[in-house]
Amino acid sequence: MPAVRRGEIEFAISSVPAIGADPEIEHEILHGDYGVVVARANHPLTRKNRLRLSDLAGHRWVLARRDEIERRILDDAFLADGLVPPRPTVETTSTTLMKALTSTSDFLSFMPAELIQWDLQARRIAKLDIEIPGAVRHMGITRRRGAVLSPVAEALQEALREISTGGALGGGR
Fold first, then answer.
1. Distance CA 143, CA 136 (A)
2. Which segments of the chain have a pLDDT < 70?
3. Using an 8 Å Cβ cutoff, are 11 and 139 in contact?
């Protein structure tokens, strides 16, 4: 986001907050996804139904950094339930590392469902039977407020909007 704010890049495609905090930046939501708690496919918690957040306390976690949207969602869910948020053994910005550690150890993780579809199908990891309140992640376009974009940037944004609404490539929300 700093590069967008400074005008070094015209826009970013990324997670966007439901409410923007920076008056110089505007966000356009194109798509929504939800976060899920995952573990290795044969983790003991995968055999339990209707888990509660308290059931996850005491486990080792690999999580996004504290300032990432997904991490804030998980921390807020624990706090709302009167629990101390997980203290991750590993903090990373790498989804690849999160999936690798989760699939090969007893780590738990919390990540967007869209990012784990292939891993679920290959049975490397499994979603735990727990719903995290407010676990929706919005994806979209972030740009400087009032910036004039190049024709190429405008065309790319329009293509992204069309795809996100099920247009040209049959994508969908």
1. 21
2. 18-20, 167-173
3. no
Residues in the chain: 173
The Cα diameter of the chain in Å comes to: 53
Could you tell me which residues come within 8 angstroms of residue 107 by beta carbon, excluding any fewer than 6 positions away?
A: 39, 59, 60, 61, 62, 89, 90, 101
Q: Which residues contact 168 (CB under 8 A, 6 or more apart)?
A: 159, 162
- Tokens describing residue 162: 């069309």
Tens of pLDDT along 32-47? Answer: 888 999 999 999 999 9
Closest CA relative to residue 144, chosen from 133, 135, 153: 153
- β-strand partners of 11: 143
CA distance 49 to 81: 19
Which residue intervals of the chain are DSSP H helices?
A: 2-5, 53-56, 69-80, 95-104, 117-121, 151-164
